[in-house]
Amino acid sequence: MYRKVKEVLEIIWKSLRGFFKNKGRTFLTLLGIAVGVSAVIITMGISSLGKQALGEEIDSLGMGGLAISLNDNDAPLTVDELNEIEEISSVKSAMPLVFETSTVYFHNQSLPVCLFGIDRNAESAISLKLLYGRFFNIGDIASCARVCMVDSKFAVSHYGTDNIIGKKITVNSGGNTDKYEIIGIIKTGSGLVQNVMGSVIPDFVYVPYSTMQKNMSSSNFTQIVIKSGDDENYEALSEEVVRKIERSNNYENAYNVNNLAKQKDSLDGIIDIFSLVLSAIGAVSLIVAGMNIMNVMLVSVKERTREIGIKKAIGAKSSMIATEFLAESAVISLCGGLLGIILGNTVMYSGGAIFGLTITPQLDIILLMLIFSAVIGAVFGIYPSLKAAKLKPVDALRYY
Prior knowledge:
single chain, alpha+beta, 6-stranded mixed β-barrel, 58% helix
């Protein structure tokens, strides 16, 4: 056993000596492997972060469950339907939502916004996070109060601070232009959309849904957002909800149920497909790097032909020569894989710091890349190692 371990260590040492014999060539070979490995790690990391951020953004907009809307504008979607939906045992929360694109005025300037009419339970229904102030209360809803909550990005961009409680802005809702007092500052989701597309995505302004209904002279909601305690049972819940409110109102096919949780899964699937395609491109670059390793090892066999002849002349077996070159190829590839893992994770952590995202090391991907790198080196080192092993001592010694 000791003898075998000693032989293995000796082979590794010899492969490392060959590794450092031509530093420039070896480094370029390492770099080829490193680029392929880092590309795969970055791609898989972006995929994971994308799904994480997408989930947070979707949840923050109330898109983690079901959204009930009207197919027939003559059908009702009012407080009565909301109460009926809340009576269903599997419904965790239900919130009315009124929506319109609007304009707000402040500092003698106008700004397009997305205006959302929400209820007092928006914190749980659409995962709003309060930074300053308060949410709407029963009194705000009952009195159709002209109060609002704004996104923290809106506050910072236009007032230079995220705490602008008590400020007033003029809001155009349903053709009515009135002053609204800011009572709350909120931050939604992971902030990825705001960080990356802040200049494209409009600001969000939230007002009591009853205020918007009064301005629009309508008792209907745009949607009712539903969350269930059982995330796997949304299909059955959607059927139950529609059946109950249609039976209550004597309507057929009047309501549309959008399973937003299912759409979230579909978006995750699209991200996975893109990730797979990009990872395949990275894998191709690894194969190209493997071919480069084979070329380098063939050059190394040619340069060390006389050395191989001397070793064989003093009793070295062909299997020993082949193992030595194969180990050298695997070590080069493995070191390239380690370099690629370091580069890839450095890029991932740097990107996460820039966009304010939490990076979790993907140990399974790292281990897979290490194994794959070693296998690439071993596979593409087979031919050079066999060529070295087949050299005859007499021919090898006559090389120079």
